[in-house]
Amino acid sequence: MLLLFGAAFALYFQGSQQPPTPRSKRLPVVRDSAAVDTGSSNERRRTQGHRRAVTAELSASAFKDPTSKITLFKAREARLTQDSALVAYDAMSHQRLSVGMGFGRIGRDRLLFRHEAASRVRWQRGVGVWVDVKGVRTAIPMISHDEASKELRKEIQQETNDPELMGEIPYYPGYEPLWVGGGNIARSQVDESEIVNPLADGAEAYYTYQTGDSISFRLPDGKTVQLRELKIRPREPKWNLTVGSLWFDTKSGQLVRAAYRMSVPMDIWAVATQEDPKSMDDVPVWVKPMITPMKAEVSAVAIEYGLYEGRFWLPRVRLAEGQAQVSFMHVPFKMQESFNYASVNAKDSLPPIRLQSVVNVVRPPDSLDAEGRAAWRDSVRLARRARIRAENDSIRQGLKVREPRVMVCDTAETRVSTSRRYEGTLSIAMRVPCDADKLEHSPELPASIYDPGEEVFSMKDLDELKQQALSLTAQAPLSFHPQLWPPPSVSYGPALMRYNRVEGFSAGISVEQQLGGGYAANAVGRIGLADLEPNVELGATRSNLVKSVSVRGYNRLVSASDWGQPLSFSSSFSALMFGRDEGFYYRATGAELSGTREAGFGGGTHIEWRTFVEQQRNAAVKTNFAVNGSDFPANITAWRGSYQGAAIRFQSQHGLDPRGLRLFSDLRLEAAHGDSLYGRGALDITASHGLGRLASALTVSGGSSLGALPPQRLWYLGGSKTIRGQSPSPDSTQSGNAYWLTRLEIGSNDAGMRPTVFGDLGWVGDRNHMTQNVKPMSGVGVGVSFLDGMFRFDVARGIYPKKQFRVDLSLESVF
Question: Which of 131, 209, 367, 639 could form a disulfide with 430 if both were Cys (CB 3.0 to 4.6 A apart)?
Fold first, then answer.
């Protein structure tokens, strides 16, 4: 869990914590020193970096039109000099960091933790920043509130109460207005070891620029402001190159709006290996397959500035989102920030910030009398003065870096810490109330930590901006030259392993090659030890990390089940250990055109669609081995034939609070033509809600069809995902062309570990007899789920048609 959290957190701050990027071997590389203006003539920092030389050919091809060159050069000047007339501001800063966890890309997103902070930020040139923390809170809903989880909760809360997550600073002299990789100072020169900033000197070797739209608006004083779009496109698909649109004030050159993303996901293994072929030699052979693939991606960064006092562009809202993947686990994340300015360039003056060594405000021992306590204080005071004098001498001589000053709460209402951030360019004093309850229930925070927070973060405009700027057509150029491609991404290990009664144990390998233009060629191959029939998929995908369109040809094993993911690693564990293979399988050979649209983290709708032409046929059972000796159920006998059709699926999730109202829905529609034309549709809806110390969940589901469904497209009830206590079976009493289903659960209101009691009821059969002589399947039982349903254990008693006990261990439950 902590590994996945760390991957997502590092992803956001990749500007300072990213792995090194391989240098180009095709173009000249130069080492340069980049001077950074910190706003003061006696404070400058020089950094060493690597970059490609901007040849005459690269410079000529970088600009698609003359205006784009003018816009870029003016933006560069404004980026490094900024507005020297800005001397102070007083703002409210709101920040929210959300990190989730789930199985697979389409698994339900659970909220691992969420951190919120609200602070008053006052900056004055020549003094620094005073941050008054008004509110801080952290939610960790997936972890139980019992004593066993207390230390883990405490550890995560301490990590998120870092000073840099308690008061984001919107502006300081020398800051990076493009917000690349978090809070960095602006580098004048490109550095390949970091995200390549498209506004830095030398970026022409990595990007091309084109003028886009322009808009104008009139200010209350009658002045007109004109904004111009600059489209940024990387020359090649690399994980540290960005694609997007930047909007600038044509008069000042200041950045006003921005929406960008990384051009392709980062394959952590491939990047590290290309930089140093021996970098992974220390990783044990058995460990690497367990954490492969290991990828990270930033799908969107959006920024919007506001105009204040008619001349100062200051950040108003900022958004960053993406995800990390480790094997079959994925960790989505989102960072949201907003700033509201009470005043800009007001004449109020801030007190100076004195940076000193660590000071602990503690009381003298109670065992001392009054005279002894006075002597104790005098000795502490003299020692402190000597230590501060020696430290200041060391700092002046350049022998020591100044440490932050921390005052620990004693009888005072607040504690104050002082430090330098942003590579020592900015002095910061942070004042935090000692009353933790006051911070957690601050009126400056949204009403609930699970609220969308629109009243605070106002992300609607940014969402529209990123949809326009980061469309499927916003890509690096397509290239047919292999030397311009990044290393291929190779995946294997548990994410591509499975076990079922047709294939037995089946291991696969996946290879993906980025081609540019958002295109990727991909190949997946696997073979089962029981049936020895090769499964192959060859295709190409175009994606902008949110939407994708794919075309592929395949020979594969297909699950006929509507519920769960029988052909996944998670479902295979129960099949191997307990003989609980809940899938019904058939073979398909053909071609398809498909697409997806990812749901946003925290809510939304995931959409999948496909059109297909394929030959379907029977898949014979080839193994009956399970560790506990149980027999697998029989498989269906599929109709052999050619089928042409289309299918679409909508999966929605609303609500992240496991103690509040959450809604999940799954709508599936399909039509195809084989021996005859048929259509089928089904809808599942689940609602859960906390009820004091208890919580409950209700699922209702139903589906019907038109025409003659082949056996591989009927519905089958029974098993951990439908009627618990009943085993799945192709028997006619448990299959049909129509069904209905309901499940009711009541359990504790603790998502970390939730004991439950449940009852399931359902019917499946002929659609013409849904209400005639109906005797539904049924089962009751008890269970316990962990980590908000990521893992679940059930003991169920079947009532009808089979009276039996059944034990299930499963993954991915909604309650």
Answer: 131
Residues 321-365 have pLDDT tens digits of: 998 888 878 899 999 999 999 999 988 889 998 875 444 444 556
Identify the CA nearest to 106 among candidates 597, 537, 525, 470.
597
H-only helix segments in 351-508: 370-396, 436-440, 454-457, 460-469
Let me know: does 798 contact 806? Beta carbons within 8 Å: yes
In Å, what is the CA distance from 227 to each residue of 218, 247, 411, 444? Answer: 12, 6, 53, 33
Query: Which helix (H) or strand (E) is 78 found in, with range?
Result: helix 66-81
Nearest alpha carbon to residue 386 among 418, 357, 427, 421: 357
Q: State both tokens at 440.
A: 């957690």
Helices H, strands E: what count in the chain?
11, 35
In the three-class reduction of DSSP (H, G, I as helix; E, B as strand; rest coil), residue 2 is classed as: helix
- Kindly state the DSSP code that residue 258 receives in the 8-state scheme: E
Give the three-class secondary structure for 355.
Answer: coil
Q: Give the tens place of pLDDT for each residue, 756-792.
A: 999 999 999 999 888 777 889 999 999 999 989 888 9
Report pLDDT for 447.
86
Element holding 294 (H helix, E strand): strand 294-308
Instruction: Please report, as a single letter, which amino acid is at residue 736.
Output: G
**Full set of structural domains in the chain with CATH:** 2-24+88-170+205-351+442-469 (no CATH), 655-815 (2.40.160.50)
Angle CA 1–324–265, to nearest 5: 165
Please, which residues have CB within 8 angstroms of residue 627's CB and are 6 or more apart in sequence?
576, 577, 578
CA distance 763 to 778: 9
CB 314 within 8 A of CB 171: yes
Buried residues in 612-641 as b, exposed as e (16+ CB within 10 A): bebebeebebbbebbeeeeebbebbebbee
> Does residue 601 contact residue 109 with C-beta atoms inside 8 Å?
yes
Q: Which residues of the chain have pLDDT under 50?
A: 1-48, 357-362, 395-396, 398-407
